[in-house]
Design goal:
180 residues; alpha+beta; Outer Surface Protein A, domain 3; 2 domains; 4-stranded antiparallel beta sheet; 3-stranded antiparallel beta sheet; 2 helices
Length: 180
């Protein structure tokens, strides 16, 4: 039995879970999320808990068991609390500005970079701290958006300049040694 897959998911008050064949829909105070689950995985709502079971012990079913449970747990957490990802900009002249829904980045290029958020994701800019906060209810979408913003100027190992996750550690390298 999967260590993660066998754990039940506790459904908090105010969250509604609908099962329609292979579709799981989770509705909460922050919004609604939908996920298609694999055919041979059974999801059941018992009391105030969601239980995920597999029909066989094949390798594929075992791998889907824990994955499906984790996806449903992420949906429940997303519609109740939401997800946030914080990015830090390091570099002289690097700055971000929120223009309506768009995010404008000045990160050393000859032109500003405009980033349009996908539906369900929002940007918040803290200019004094040079930070960008990306928030939303879908964990995967928030993570992908943060990775996309980071990809415009990933941190480099010599000076440490670039856009990095707030908890990311950038390993620094020594520069070119002086010749004799």
């Amino acid at each position: 039995m999967s260590k993660i897959g066998k754990l039940p998911i506790t459904v908090p008050k105010g969250v509604k879970i609908d099962l329609d064949g292979t579709q799981v829909t989770v509705t909460g105070p922050r919004g609604t999320l939908m996920q298609t689950i694999p055919e041979k995985i059974n999801v059941a709502v018992e009391d105030d808990q969601v239980v995920v079971r597999r029909t066989s012990d094949s390798r594929l079913q075992r791998s889907y068991h824990g994955l499906t449970r984790a996806l449903i747990q992420n949906m429940v957490t997303g519609v109740t609390e939401g997800y946030r990802q914080t990015l830090q900009m390091v570099g002289v002249g690097y700055r971000a500005e929120a223009k309506g829904k768009l995010l404008e980045l000045n990160v050393g290029y000859s032109h500003p970079v405009l980033v349009r958020p996908p539906d369900g994701v929002s940007f918040e800019v803290l200019p004094k701290e040079n930070r960008i906060i990306i928030s939303g209810i879908d964990k995967q979408l928030v993570g992908m958006t943060a990775a996309k913003v980071r990809s415009f100027r990933p941190p480099e190992p010599y000076k440490g300049k670039g856009i990095r996750y707030i908890d990311e550690i950038v390993r620094r390298k020594a520069g070119k040694a002086a010749g004799k």
